Amino acid sequence: MGEPEVLYGVDGPVATATLHRPERRNALTWAMLAHLRAVLAQAKADPDVRVLVLTGAGEAAFCAGADLEGMAAGASPLELHDGRGALARVFEDLWSLGKPTIAKVRGHCLAGGFGLALSCDLVLAAADATFATPEVDVGLWPFMASVPLCRSMPPKKALELMLTGRRVGAAEADRLGFVTRVVPAADLDAATTDLAATLAAKSPTAVRLGRDAFYRVWDAGASEALTALHPLLSVLVETDDAREGLAAFAERRPPRFTGR
Questions:
Q1: Domain housing 22
Q2: How do residues 79-99 score in pLDDT, each as one tens digit?
Q3: Which of 86, 99, 210, 254 is the most exposed place for a label (fewest CB within 10 A)?
């Protein structure tokens, strides 16, 4: 047996999931999506994991999208239809993880891989990163990826990228607002480590409640959102982490958060 198509490791409070098909620019397969879902479930269930980093093996690509030839081989139309929902389920797994997620992007980030990166909370991009939804060039459309794209930049900008299939460099991605930060390729590892450490030091309780609330009210109207958000502060202030944070502030010392 060869190496798994998704590698998973934990270093302190930071878990890393690595798409691992560098010879195919980390193109997605059914097995890879199933393995990625299992890895995300593992990170979600681990109380010691506070942050998840998602990245691709090698320097050429974060993910080049679906392995179209491999995914179609030997599958019936119904099996293909059911299988295509796997990417949408991964998007939802990332949104519901309960912990901050960082996409660490080098090289090509295309099609479903673009949607996968933008389903993470934050995107750190190397200066050599390129993003695109080229499906239209082969007579297809990025139906599922359109959701994270339209949530990550002005919708008409997302539509233009989907209509043209053109490639966007890291500098333009930064201007469009769908990447958090662009760094030289040589600094990407260090920048990701620093950002993950910053997030891991925050209260897991506040982060989980706040992040869950963020995704819950994203598409809601103002009145509906405020109704849902109002009681959450009352819940949060009764937690051990909130008490510890306020005590640490008053005592002018770093807080010691426990996630309770």
A1: 6-200
A2: 777 777 899 999 999 999 999
A3: 254
Using a CB cutoff of 8 Å and minimum separation of 24, what contacts does 116-119 make?
116/28, 116/54, 116/63, 116/87, 116/90, 116/91, 117/54, 117/62, 117/63, 118/145, 118/148, 118/149, 118/151, 118/152, 118/178, 119/90, 119/91, 119/94, 119/95, 119/148
At 8-21, the pLDDT tens digits run: 999 999 999 999 99
- Give per-residue pLDDT as tens, 36-54: 999 999 999 999 999 999 9
Q: Is 135 a catalytic residue?
A: yes
Do 135 and 214 fall within a single domain?
A: no
Whether 1 maps to a domain, the answer reads no
Residues 117 and 20 in one domain: yes
Catalytic residue among 59, 79, 135, 238: 135
Same domain, 33 and 58: yes
In this structure, the answer to whether residues 67 and 195 fall within a common structural domain is yes
Residue 64 lies in a domain: yes
Instruction: Tell me the average pLDDT of the chain.
Output: 94
> How much is the pTM?
0.94
Number of domains in the chain: 2
Give the pLDDT score at 79: 72
